[in-house]
Amino acid sequence: MEKAMGKIMTAAAETRAAAGTMTNFRWKIAFLIFLISFVAYMDRVNLSVATPVIMQEFGFTKIDMGFIQTCFFASYALMQVPGGILAEKFGMRKTGALAILWWSVFTALTALAKGKISFAAVRLAFGLGEGPVFPSLGAATFTWFNKHEKGKASSSILLGTFFGPVVGPVATVALMGLFGWHAVFIIFGLVGIALAWVWHRFACDNPADSPYVNAEEAAYINEGRSADSLKKAVAPWSKFLRSTQFWAVGIQFMVVDYIMYVFLAWLPMYLTEVHNMSLKSMGFWASCPWIALMAMVFLAGFVSDKIANGSHSEMQYKMRTVTAMAGVAVTSLGLYIASHTADPAMNIFWMSVSLGALGFAMSASWSSVISLGGKYTGSVSGWINLWGNIGGVLAPIVTAFFVTNYGWNNAFTATSLFGIIAIVAWIFVKPGKQLVPQDK
Question: What CA–CA distance (Å, rounded) separates 166 from 186?
């Protein structure tokens, strides 16, 4: 009866929207989330694409570049849990704006680095600033969207993060050709500073406080949600840390992000070194796996919301688990095949299959953050991003070690085997069971 009433209320709200009586400002917030996550990942891709030029200019080895990349991921990982706590204590608006501003300033300062130590220091500070961004965006997906829109809301984060690597190689190569590699970091630093202002201006902690959200939209967003869920509160970490689900969702995301960051940090170098691609050619082909990933994330979010709004809505959590496990399995298989494929076109094809399939696990992970965390979504976002960026810390330096000592093919084969850990971890995630039961 309760579910039936909930669906009737949702249908009524959607009818008002169709009639034009309800604003839809939340989807402008979704687009802003997309832009922020897009620029955040552009700022990471820029260094990967500029790596061959920077290595040549400063005489860096692959181990040196792996160390510089790892400095970012180490500080970024360390700020995930504190970032979630800050977003819940001070609000996603202030926390997010300050974090975007900080990371953008240090993106620009990358252009002033003169050696390995200065590069490492700037990237370390860059990671500290960016740390609270995604917990803030995760909190926004909980606060700003109806419970039946969580799949598409989560996809706005993921599509931005994966659109960055699609555009990043082409845009970075073009800007480098026109202005040199230093200008790339300055330009994107200025873009980020502008986004910090926009976030602070439009992303209220409570949608009802926004002058762009009318009463109908605020009621629709908060449908089935208690007033208590909008209050700022610190998560019950002692309960979280005793939860098998909590550890499982973090561990699986470490593996998923590890695989993704291998692509992010090393695919441009792999294509230029193994397949002898020019910078211009590499800029195009390096984008293909990320286009596949974007397509699969969009599809996964669409299907997730369809199931959530359908007559078998309780199946969404089981399907989330199954698609995540299947996605990681296909990712590992595709990467293994790619590592043993010499033809450049077929290699890119299997790389695209591999990274594309990872989109199902990514979408399932971020949707599960909302269903597991509820009003503590910021902290749970920080938790999985902490684990994800432990993978990010390891991916550049471990891959550099394997490539230097055993070659590219063995490095990718080893990466593919990590997928087994994520598949096993998903058995224990149970995304339909909230970590701490909350009032609805």
Answer: 20
